[in-house]
Fold this sequence. Notes:
The structure holds two protein chains of two kinds.
Chain A: H1 3-12, E1 14-15, H2 18-45, H3 67-83, H4 87-104, H5 111-125, H6 134-139, E2 144-145, E3 147-148, H7 150-169, H8 173-176, H9 179-184, H10 200-220, H11 227-244, H12 250-264, E4 278-279
Parallel strand pairs in A: 2-4
Antiparallel strand pairs in A: 1-3
Helix pairs in contact in A: 2-3, 2-5, 2-12, 3-4, 4-5, 5-7, 5-12, 7-10, 10-11, 11-12
Chain B: H1 13-36, E1 58-63, E2 68-70, H2 73-76, H3 86-97, E3 101-107, E4 114-117
Amino acid sequence: MSLIGRLHETLTARMDPRPLAWVRIGVGAAALLRGFESWRVLGRVLDPDRVALPFCEALPRLSLEALPLFIGGWLAAALCLLLGWHTRLAGLALSLAVAYAIALDRQLYASHLYLMGLLSLLLALGGAGEALSLDALRRGSPAARAIPSWPAALLKAQLSIVYGFAALAKLNPVYLSGAVLAVNLRHGGPLALPEALLAAPLLAALAAGSVALEAFLALALWSPRWRRAALLLGPAFHAAMVLAIDPALALQIGVFAIEALSLYLLFLELPIGEPSAVAYSPQIGA
Amino acid sequence: MRAGDRRPRPWTRRQVGVAVFFVAYLAVQLAVPSAKLWEPRPARFGWQMFAGIAPAPRFAVAMADGSTREVALADHYGNPRADLRYEDHLPGHLCRSLPGARAVRLERAGREPEVRPCP
């Protein structure tokens, strides 16, 4: 089949809406958590006594007085996305709020935030409110409707892109020496690695292992042969990061973990819930 | 369409729109991080989480009374990050915000210390 033919097939294929609904719930929860963190960080960045670094001078700068309103909108959009209430509008509003926050000041960029903006946009476009949602309840239809599968295909590709480029970017002498881990690992407390394990050769081995694991995850999730291993190793990897990295970064890493692990559900081939509950109706166009 | 007819169905306008979005999205998501691989780590929009360390320069302000004031980045940035080029904006900010500031001295790893006079 030609490339155009394959593209046509991808764009017209349909899927059970529930895996995407679980992604929506995960991203909504992550956005709720991140909303409170954004309140704290934005409050500091918008302080007029501090350096302002707008990406775009023409973009109106949020005032400290308007910050609670902005965060209120963010949290409302996140909650609506989580519950699947006016899902499309909630997803678009959340992606716009994230885009505005990133564009507002160069101090506000974070990879997990950028990922949140992309995921909420794709969820808004993808019929993520067709199941496990207040929208579905409101519709009163007992059976979820099949949805186009191309948004899920983009979300899966996005996860591989994140892992793949994360691995490629780490192929540098500084990271592979273990120095980045030495700086960012948790020091002190019951969850800190023993000092004996923080020797340079071990950190270098750990660094190389993490690169290999990210590269593996980027590819293995697509492989029927390796998917099961990826589905086990991925959550373990994210959990280890949350536990082992400096607690000051735990929230960011936790949000990233929720986003990434939510996307794993799209790779599961097992049906989630009762398959008979889904009626594949042709009501939604591609 | 006759049974067994394998001619491809024509694309609807909506499908063309979706196809353009689909391809553009993937193209951007592959092209931008690829380009960012050639920039110093960590670069934005490149999925370069924890890919490198960028030690921040050290700043000190020479005051009119002859004293020197060490600068803590957290006092002047709401969210200090490894991908910010502090030397581009902090000296000007210090000169404007600290009454009596005469010059800003900055030290960067592997470079000679630099003194930037306040205007």
